[in-house]
Design a protein that fits this description.
Layout: E1 14-17, E2 22-29, E3 32-35, E4 44-45, E5 48-49, E6 58-59, H1 61-64, E7 74-75, H2 89-97, E8 101-104, E9 110-114, E10 117-120, H3 121-140, E11 146-151, H4 157-169, E12 173-179, H5 180-187, E13 195-204, E14 209-218, E15 220-229, H6 234-253, H7 261-277, E16 283-294, E17 297-306, H8 307-332, E18 341-345, H9 352-361, E19 366-368, H10 376-384
Parallel strand pairs: 1-11, 11-12, 13-18, 18-19
Antiparallel strand pairs: 1-2, 2-3, 2-4, 5-6, 5-7, 8-9, 9-10, 13-14, 14-15, 16-17
Helix pairs in contact: 3-4, 5-10, 6-7, 6-8, 8-9
Length: about 400
Amino acid sequence: MPPAAPLTARELILGLDFGTSYSSAGVLLDGKVDLVRDDGETATPSVVHMPPRRGEPVIGTKAVARLASDPGTTVTSIKRLLGRSFEDPVVRRTQQWAAYKLKRSPQGRVLVELGGADYACEQIAGWIMARLRTLAETRFGARIQRAVVATPVAASGDYVTALKTAARLAGLDIIQTIPEPIAAALAVGMHIEPAERRLVVCDFGGGTFDVTLMAQDALSFRPLAIDGDEFLGGDDFDEVLAAAIGGVIYQKASYDINRDVVRAQQLRHRCESVKRLLSTRNEAPLLMRDAYLASGRSCDLNSVVERSWIEPRWEPLVDRAVQVTQRLLDRGGCTAEQITHVVLVGGGTLMPLVRRRIAEMFPAAQQVTGDYAQVAIAAGAVLQTAAHLATTAQVPRLAEGA
């Protein structure tokens, strides 16, 4: 898309959601949220590939293409490691599945080894943010130096410090952080009219499931309780589908696809596309060339995945999300009947199975979602930039204290 006309007459502030699997950003133009595009998509994969000769890092969709061929030099889920010590259990668990190597820095933090060189997590996160800033400057024709960034409601001080360091490396000054559930509430318009509500915000992203109990008092939002699962997200649904397809292949050809790192990664990547299609269709094609070997001969995978076939295999993952949500209510001293609205954001909430289970859990609550669940957090961060712009008459009113 060609860049817009220069907008030097007005100040632009970037609203940014730095996500585990995908990141998004945008600006407020004439009172409307305008998100940047990366290869036509409003969400950029939070993936970084470092070329063998240590050239410029490859970021986003092009980096995803290198996951299969160069998994050891392609980093995913860097958000999980940001601000953590090397001894953190999350770091240890990440190392169990990550193809790239993690090391301990002299300060006890996490370093990522890529192509024989060590990189701080802040550097890698900074590359992703810089990509979003560059895309925004190209799209809107203006230099952007300030940002409002969404953060997990339970983000530690170390995480926020690391996030701000990453932003500085990307040429951005974070002028405000906004809790992700409040950004979600803004994105779906809960702030437009004053009201007394009890909200549950379900954020089902690619790598994590976060759920927040909030009170809305007029235009003010207050978190009452938080919970979540740091290893439950859309990626897990992809893994389950890939394992199920792998089982079919093994029954047919006695071939274990997991023994081939490249083929296994390619299958998981295709399973993500199938999962997305199954959010709106009852069945979806799954095609993969040279997927497996049968009697020494390379065979293609050409099948159709039915939603009714995979949903029972996804049920245990949704059960975990329901258990986390019930635990949240218990912590907040609240019953499901007291919840007036359930705000659904994150790509995982587009799955019919997830929506059905939420409806069963909160039969009296209204399910609320925006136009684009996957980028709702970024849209909320963009709306919050209005608090820092000189001309605020064109923008919606925002939550006090957000």
